[in-house]
Amino acid sequence: MPLRLLITRPEPAATRMAKDLRGMFPGAEVVVSPLMRIACGGTLPALAAHEVLIFTSRHGIEGFCRLSPRRDLPACTVGCATAAEAQRRGFDVRVVAGDAEALLGRIATKGVAGPFLHARGAHVAADLAGALRRAGHAAREAVVYDQQALPLTDAARAMLDGDAPVILPLMSPRSATLFFEAAGTPRAPLLVAAISRNVAARIPEDVARRVAVAASPDIRALHNVLRDLAKDSKRVESHKGAQ
Q: Which top EC class is given (predicted)?
């Protein structure tokens, strides 16, 4: 039986990831079922002359750019992909870190003073603006997009109702929460690749056969976890076939 993977990221990231995984695992069955739809919108406050923008996702960049023509402001970002998108849009990226906690540390180390504006989604895993204020900085936030929940597709439910193991990459705490709210306890043995410990913490106990956390919160480390889980999936299949 072919390897089975379920992608729940929002579009267009879901389709990009599915293409990458089909290349990594030729012959795999890859089902795309986004659990969120990104809807840009919101309002921005008047921007200070030396405002430092904080982007924790490419969606935040897109949302900001739809609301403001300003591209002359420096930025601090979470993730290399977010940094690359910010640079592509014309922002001067001063600090890049793997996650929100590391970003706060690097801002302090590099002496970036702000004032800061976190352009964020309606749902966030960390209160960056609050943490910066507690550290003595002027910091505020603006919601520039929403992550609207979507149901699992029929194809995703059919995969989860089967007997074969399903590998599930999870990229955010909200994705993890939405998935288990929608899926409950799947019949299929579930092998979860969590991009961070914060994501893994949202997975209910005894629902997944295995939860593996990436060594660092980036796509390269997640791919290493997926390769390991692919081997585990074959062992589960072999064990079931031997019964």
A: lyase
Query: What letter represents residue 209's amino acid?
Result: R
pLDDT of residue 243: 46
- Given CA atoms 38, 149, 55, 198 in this order, what sign does their dihedral have? negative
| DSSP class per residue in 181-202 | HHH-S-SS-EEEEESSHHHHTT
Tell me the pairing of strands 74-78 and 92-97: parallel
Round to whole Å and give the CA distance between 185 and 214.
23
In CATH terms, the fold of domain 38-147 is: Rossmann fold (3.40.50)
Determine what percent of the chain is predicted with pLDDT higher than 90: 79
Cβ within 8 Å of residue 227, ≥6 positions away: 24
| CATH 3.40.640.10 describes domain 4-35+152-242 | no
Q: Identify the CA nearest to 188 among candidates 212, 167, 172.
A: 167
| pLDDT tens digit sequence for 201-217 | 999 998 999 999 999 88
pLDDT tens sequence across 69-82: 999 999 999 988 89
CB atoms within 10 A of CB 175: 23
Two domains, one topology: 4-35+152-242 and 38-147: yes
Dihedral-angle region of residue 124 (phi above 0 means left; psi in -120 to 50 means alpha; beta otherwise): beta
End-to-end CA distance of the chain: 16
CA separation for the pair 155, 96 (Å, rounded): 37
Domain map of the chain by residue range?
4-35+152-242, 38-147
> Span 178-201, mean pLDDT?
93
Residue 26: its H or E element = none
